[in-house]
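Please fill in the sequence for the structure shown.

STRUCTURE ENCODING:
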C-alpha cells in the first residue's frame, strides 16, 4: 500500500505512515484522536453540568410544603407611586411584609391588584422577588414595580397578596 501523502510504501492496513506520520483514513485526517478526546471530555462536562441543573430544578417537586396564601406572611402599609420616565409610565407598590412564623420564607410571589375609586379592578401585576428572604418573626419592606396598563387617573388604590413562597433552608 502507498501512503496517501508522501507516497512511500507502507504495510497494508497501516493507520499512520511511519515516515510522514499522517493518517491514512479521511476520518482520522479530519478528526484526530486528540480531537476525539477533547470532544469526549466536553460532552462529559456538559452532561455533568446539565445533570446537576436538572437535579436542582427537580428539587422544586419534592414534598416540602410551599406557602400558598394564609396569615403566616402579612402585608401592610402599602403605598402606590406613579412615575413617568423614558416614555413609560411605571407603577410602584411599596409595602411591609411581616413573617408570623418560625420559618424563613423566600422566592415570594406577589400579586398586586390596582383599583379605581369605584373599587373596580383596572390592572393586575404579578412579581417574584428572588432576593427577598423574610426571616422568622421579622418585618421587611418590599417593592413591586411594573408598567401601567390603564389610564393614570384611574389608579386610586391597590391590594397586595402573596400567592406563593418557599421555605428558605439557607437561613439556618
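FILLED IN BY: designer on duty
SEQUENCE:
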Amino acid at each position: 500500500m502507498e501512503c496517501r501523502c508522501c507516497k512511500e510504501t507502507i504495510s497494508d492496513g497501516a493507520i499512520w505512515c511511519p515516515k510522514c506520520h499522517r493518517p491514512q483514513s479521511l476520518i482520522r485526517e479530519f478528526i484526530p484522536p486528540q480531537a476525539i478526546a477533547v470532544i469526549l471530555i466536553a460532552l462529559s462536562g456538559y452532561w455533568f453540568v446539565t445533570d446537576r441543573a436538572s437535579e436542582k430544578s427537580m428539587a422544586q417537586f419534592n414534598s416540602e410544603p410551599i406557602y400558598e396564601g394564609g396569615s403566616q406572611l402579612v402585608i401592610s402599609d402599602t403605598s402606590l407611586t406613579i412615575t413617568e420616565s423614558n416614555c413609560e409610565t411605571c407603577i410602584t407598590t411599596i409595602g411591609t411584609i411581616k413573617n408570623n412564623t418560625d420559618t424563613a420564607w423566600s422566592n415570594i410571589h406577589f400579586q398586586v391588584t390596582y383599583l379605581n375609586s369605584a373599587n373596580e379592578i383596572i390592572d393586575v401585576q404579578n412579581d417574584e422577588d428572588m432576593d427577598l428572604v423574610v426571616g422568622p418573626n421579622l418585618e421587611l419592606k418590599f417593592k413591586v414595580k411594573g408598567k401601567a396598563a390603564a389610564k393614570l387617573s384611574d389608579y386610586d388604590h391597590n391590594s397586595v397578596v402573596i400567592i406563593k413562597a418557599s421555605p428558605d433552608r439557607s437561613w439556618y
